[in-house]
């Protein structure tokens, strides 16, 4: 039997919004709606910290890719 779960698109991160509502968000939605969120909520602080570390790792990867792309454009003088 094969199981699959898309971490990017299916809601699994328990987030607390500014309105005080706890709702599960996908990885993509949690990053896109970061300004609307107060925290990652879970009974276990270890789970909350682990999810925050995952989100930070994704942001670092994306920021590095953007930084390298901008650097390449500036190096070519095509700005």
Describe this structure in words.
The protein has 79 residues and is α+β, with helices and mostly antiparallel strands. The chain is 48% helix and 16% strand. The chain contains two helices and three strands. The protein has helices spanning 27-32, 45-76; strands spanning 13-17, 22-25, 37-40. Strands 2-1-3 form a three-stranded antiparallel β-sheet. The longest helix is centred in the last third of the chain and has 32 residues, at 45-76. The N and C termini lie far apart (52 Å). The model has no long low-confidence stretch (mean pLDDT 91).
What are the defining features of this structure?
single chain, 79 residues
User: What's the mean pLDDT score?
Assistant: 91
Fraction of residues in helix: 40-55%
Give the DSSP E fraction (strand runs of 2 or more residues).
15-25%
Write out the strand line-up for the largest beta sheet, numbering strands in chain order. 2-1-3
- Cα radius of gyration in angstroms: 16 Å
Globally, the shape reads extended
What's the count of strands?
A: 3
* Count of helical regions: 2
Structural class: alpha+beta
Report, as a whole number of angstroms, the end-to-end distance.
52 Å
Summarize the SSE layout with pairings.
Layout: E1 13-17, E2 22-25, H1 27-32, E3 37-40, H2 45-76
Antiparallel strand pairs: 1-2, 1-3
